[in-house]
């Protein structure tokens, strides 16, 4: 038992002393089996349904590589571009990277349990918790910024936990390097770093704040982010402008602050939410975890920050591996409660795995999504209908006389349909797609020679501000009755543009 294995030296250690503990052996084989099973499940379902709108946007952004974008740093579009160059817009190839990252996350969860003194069983339980969480599988299924966030946050925490035990300062340097990479993915990691530093300053071990390599790592992270910050500054800090827009979107779609904590717990898993809460509580209260108390307050601090700022529930998913690891180690204690063993036992894991797979992965026939539980999950419904959207645009385009086809462009009200037409429609001979929405607007305006426009989305009154002639010529239908953002979207034939596009485009830019 872990409780019996803890040494007297460890129990007597103070926060500012290294934790004296001999690490258990790494349960390499079973942990790698779990990681391999997760990767296999993700790859087996990678080709089902279709691209998510964000994935198509990443592919489009990758074709206009830059130091940053209006809505994110450059890393994920760069990954998408590499896949695009090697395989074209291939759905399975695009999803290999997030699947492999998720496998890495499984291993990191096990290593965290090992650092807390967990032996084979605890390591396997922590790995299994990560593998069976709906939020992990959702973001492991498709290419998303959250995928790298979860894994990079777990790695930063692992490096700090290992530093507490070993006092090897090179680990702090690697934490800085990891932060530098995470900042190329999303600026969200700044919240983790700031809350970690505040928690350490308040609860200890304060010694870490005086280690030079910590600040060398911080300098690396800052320097690596300078190009993205310069891009943001030269374009008027568009990512800051996205904050209020996302907050309004969260209020409208996700229930806002009132639903933040319920959604956080639900995203961990219907049973795995209980170990997550228990692991947080033990970090805050257990005497043997006193050197790691800063991690418990980091979890609490992040929850408070994202609740106050009206953040998305998955923003805190990167600390789930930490609290699951602590909970897994506690499971090995002789006085563990029966309910606790059930949540992390074979029956509990079987239930969690089945629930996560059926909720997060496209294992059901696409025809059943409209009437099943996945109808309420954006992660499922937004991967349906993009080919049909392009089909509808193509029908409208082919109906134009040849002379008008030559001067036609596609403009979409939002970035998702524009990305779908640009990525999936160009190989069909469709014209370039433009959009005044969010970051897509920065890819450029239609040429002033474009007099015929197939406009996807919006309504007639809006379009008549910009065009003298507006006529509805089509509608998007995914064919399976799934209600999503593109279902029922109108396609308009717009002519007689009232101003040159070079003048019109700045007035059309919108974020909502």
TrEMBL record:
Membrane-traversing stretches: 31-51, 92-112, 148-164, 171-201, 213-231, 292-308, 343-364
Q: Name one GO molecular function term.
A: pentosyltransferase activity
One Gene Ontology biological process:
lipopolysaccharide biosynthetic process
Query: Keywords for this entry?
Result: Cell membrane, Glycosyltransferase, Membrane, Transferase, Transmembrane, Transmembrane helix
Record has Ribosomal protein as a keyword: no
Q: What is its main location?
A: membrane
Q: Which domain of life is it from?
A: Bacteria
Query: Keyword Transmembrane helix on this protein?
Result: yes
Give the CC-aspect GO terms: plasma membrane
Q: What is this protein called?
A: 4-amino-4-deoxy-L-arabinose transferase-like glycosyltransferase
């Amino acid at each position: 038992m872990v409780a019996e294995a803890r040494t007297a030296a460890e129990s007597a250690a103070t926060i500012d002393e290294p934790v004296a503990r001999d690490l258990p052996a790494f349960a390499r084989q079973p942990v790698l089996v779990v990681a391999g099973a997760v990767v296999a499940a993700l790859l087996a379902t990678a080709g089902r349904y279709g691209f998510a709108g964000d994935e198509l946007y990443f592919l489009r952004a990758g074709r206009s590589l830059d130091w940053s974008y209006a809505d994110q740093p450059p890393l994920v579009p760069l990954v998408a571009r590499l896949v695009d160059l090697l395989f074209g817009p291939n759905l399975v190839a695009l999803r290999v990277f997030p699947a492999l990252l998720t496998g890495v996350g499984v291993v990191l969860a096990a290593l965290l349990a090992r650092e807390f003194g967990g032996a084979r069983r605890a390591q396997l339980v922590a790995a299994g918790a990560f593998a069976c969480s709906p939020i992990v599988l959702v973001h492991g299924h498709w290419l998303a910024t959250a995928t790298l966030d979860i894994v990079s946050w777990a790695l930063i925490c692992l490096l700090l936990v290992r530093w507490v035990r070993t006092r090897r300062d090179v680990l702090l340097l690697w934490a800085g390097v990891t932060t530098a990479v995470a900042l190329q993915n999303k600026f969200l990691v700044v919240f983790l770093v700031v809350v970690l530093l505040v928690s350490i300053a308040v609860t200890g071990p304060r010694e870490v704040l005086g280690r030079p390599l910590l600040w060398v790592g911080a300098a690396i992270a800052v320097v690596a982010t300078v190009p993205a910050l310069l891009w943001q500054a030269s374009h008027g800090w568009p990512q800051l402008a996205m904050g209020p827009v996302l907050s309004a979107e969260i209020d409208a779609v996700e229930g806002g602050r009132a639903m933040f904590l319920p959604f956080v717990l639900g995203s961990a898993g219907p049973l795995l939410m209980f170990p997550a809460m228990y692991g947080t509580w033990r970090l805050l209260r257990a005497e043997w975890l006193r050197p790691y108390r800063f991690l418990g307050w980091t979890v609490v601090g992040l929850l408070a920050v994202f609740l106050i700022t009206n953040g998305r529930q998955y923003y805190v998913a990167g600390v789930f591996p930490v609290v699951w690891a602590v909970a897994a180690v506690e499971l090995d204690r002789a006085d563990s409660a029966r309910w606790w063993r059930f949540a992390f036992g074979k029956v509990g894991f079987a239930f969690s795995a089945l629930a996560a797979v059926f909720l997060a992965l496209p294992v059901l026939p696409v025809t059943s999504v409209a009437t099943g539980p996945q109808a309420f999950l954006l992660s499922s419904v937004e991967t349906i209908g993009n080919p049909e959207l392009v089909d509808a645009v193509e029908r409208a385009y082919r109906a134009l006389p040849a002379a008008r086809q030559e001067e036609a462009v596609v403009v979409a009200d939002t970035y998702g349909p524009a990305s779908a037409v640009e990525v999936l429609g160009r190989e069909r001979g469709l014209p370039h797609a433009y959009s005044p929405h969010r970051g897509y607007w920065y890819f450029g305006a239609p040429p002033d020679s474009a007099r015929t426009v197939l406009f996807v989305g919006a309504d007639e009154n809006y379009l008549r501000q910009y065009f003298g002639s507006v006529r509805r010529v089509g509608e998007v239908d995914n064919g399976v009755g799934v209600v999503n953002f593109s279902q029922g979207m109108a396609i308009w034939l717009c002519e007689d543009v009232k101003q040159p596009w070079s003048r019109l485009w700045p007035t059309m830019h919108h974020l909502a």
